Automatic annotation (TrEMBL):
Endpoints of the signal sequence: none
Coiled coil regions in record: none
Molecular function per GO: peroxiredoxin activity
Organism: Trinickia violacea
InterPro entries on file: AhpD-like, AhpD_core, CMD-like
Pfam (any one): CMD
Domain of life: Bacteria
Matching PANTHER family: CMD DOMAIN-CONTAINING PROTEIN, SI:CH211-175M2.5
Domain Carboxymuconolactone decarboxylase-like: 44-119
Protein name: Carboxymuconolactone decarboxylase family protein
Length: 181
């Protein structure tokens, strides 16, 4: 059961409304997470700005794969449903790649290095080894890319933690539990 109720349109704070309306227009509906997050215009608008900026980082397949890996580690079922949906429909990742990403891997070597590194960052609280950093660089990622991977880990962790706390009702298709993939 949800630990919060998504705001109805007439309950959305005025300072959150333009951002929420833009998401609703782009997505075609208002996800419950966003309608819950909008309760704080400060946090919601800051996250939306970060999301917009980070949508230019790396490529969509790598971003979605990192989102899946981070959400798996953080145990965020809401985000796993969202990232599985976007990975399939926007990034065009096949089902086996989505499962691989949840496990912290990818078939593409450069994407695999980014996803492995992202998983190391979240598992170690950022205290990665020299070998971890060397591996992601050796795969062709620049220090700017490494910075973007770390920022994506932080951004996805923010929504993971938010959704784990508030547990909004899921509005994307359910995914297979981690224990059975």
């Amino acid at each position: 059961m949800a630990r919060s109720i998504a705001l109805k349109p007439d309950q959305v704070p005025a300072d959150s409304k333009p951002t929420l309306d833009a998401f609703t227009k782009n997505i075609g509906f208002t996800p419950n997470m966003m309608a819950t997050f909008a309760q704080s215009p400060i946090a919601f608008n800051a996250w939306a700005t970060l999301l917009g900026s980070m949508s230019k980082a790396l490529d969509v397949k790598t971003r979605d794969s990192i989102g899946l890996a981070v959400s798996e580690v953080n145990g965020c079922n809401y985000c796993l449903t969202v990232h599985s949906f976007t990975a399939e429909h926007m990034a065009q990742l096949p089902a086996e790649e989505i499962i691989l990403a949840r496990k912290g891997h990818a078939t593409d070597p450069k994407r695999d290095a980014a996803v492995r590194f992202a998983r190391k960052v979240i598992e170690t609280g950022g205290k990665v080894s020299d070998a971890d950093l060397k591996a992601v660089r050796d795969a062709g990622h620049t220090d700017a890319n490494v910075t973007e991977i770390v920022a994506l880990v932080a951004m996805y962790s923010l929504t993971n933690y938010f959704n784990n706390v508030f547990d909004p009702e899921k509005d994307f298709p359910a995914v297979t539990p981690a224990g059975s993939i």
